[in-house]
Design brief:
Elements lengths: L17 H24 L1 H9 L6 H19 L3 E3 L12 E4 L6 H5 L6 E5 L2 H4 L3 H7 L3 E2 L5 H10 L3 E4 L17 H9 L3 E7 L1 H4 L12 E5 L12 H19 L1 H15 L1
Parallel strand pairs: 1-7, 2-5, 2-6, 3-4, 3-5
Antiparallel strand pairs: 6-7
Length: 269
């Protein structure tokens, strides 16, 4: 029998009860209101700050993280567990590398402490208000031919990166292949990679579905990895280490995910 994390996500949904519909409408309204306040009400101030005394756009990212930390805590409550690295803080700057199953993954990474830019694909930049907020925060467009140079300059100025190296959200729950960019950048700049395992986001908000399901979510940093620049193909070694750590963490959580799915189905029937 396959584990819960190998079953396609479209077969893992609870029945759409009125409670789920109401919660979904409430969450979208809440998150949309925060987006409106950040992009429209505070947007001119954040733009002015970025154009004058805050060229790194730290203020916009700080406020965005604060708003959506509050939103996610209100949305998930005790069902969201944010872990810390045992005995140490996440270094700054660093490159936080996470698995990617849902549109809320970036909001989950906001729960961690480092100031960082998101390395994002085209679609969020094209959305009304969201695209404006992405630019206000100085997030980077992964399809820009100069993105590696921009990211390296950001790191030199003390601002890290959030990266989803699979390049797209997983539709199956399985961890996909990683692209090389984040690991090449780590070798080039000397900053560490911090692997992060996100569990539950794909069952909470599955790609292609509007409904938001109330399930446990965890965000777990797994360590601090430095590349050996003297090693041949150091970025490939770093990529394998990172992929292995995240894959092992997700595998260890598979039985817990199966139990959570079973409990969710009982509650909603």
């Amino acid at each position: 029998m396959p584990s819960a994390d190998t079953i396609p996500m479209d077969r893992r949904h609870a029945r759409l009860t009125w409670r789920i519909r109401w919660r979904t409408a409430l969450v979208y309204t809440w998150f949309g209101l925060y987006l409106f306040v950040l992009a429209v009400v505070l947007g001119p101030l954040l733009w002015l700050a970025g154009a004058t005394w805050d060229p790194q756009r730290r203020l916009a990212r700080r406020w965005t993280r604060a708003f959506y930390r509050h939103a996610m805590r209100g949305f998930c409550g005790a069902r969201m567990v944010i872990e810390n690295l045992p005995g140490q803080a996440i270094p700054e700057p660093c490159i936080l590398v996470a698995n990617h199953q849902s549109a809320i993954d970036i909001l989950l990474l906001f729960q961690l402490s480092p100031d960082a830019r998101c390395w994002a694909k085209d679609w969020p930049f094209q959305k009304p208000l969201l695209g404006w907020l992405m630019r206000l925060c100085g997030h980077l467009h992964v399809d820009d031919p100069n993105v590696l140079e921009q990211a390296a300059e950001s790191i030199r100025q003390g601002v890290g990166l959030y990266v989803f190296p699979e390049g797209t959200r997983s539709r199956s729950g399985r961890l996909g292949r990683f692209h090389d960019g984040a690991f090449l950048l780590a070798v080039q700049t000397g900053v560490p990679i911090v692997p992060v395992a996100i569990r539950g986001s794909g069952r909470c908000m599955t790609p292609g579905y509007v409904a938001i399901i109330d399930v446990p979510i965890s965000v777990r940093p797994l360590g601090i990895l430095y590349a050996d620049p003297a090693a041949p193909k150091a970025h490939l070694v770093l990529k394998r280490q990172t992929h292995g750590l995240i894959a092992a963490a997700l595998e260890a959580d598979a039985s817990t995910a199966a139990t959570d799915d079973h409990k969710s189905s009982i509650v909603s029937t």
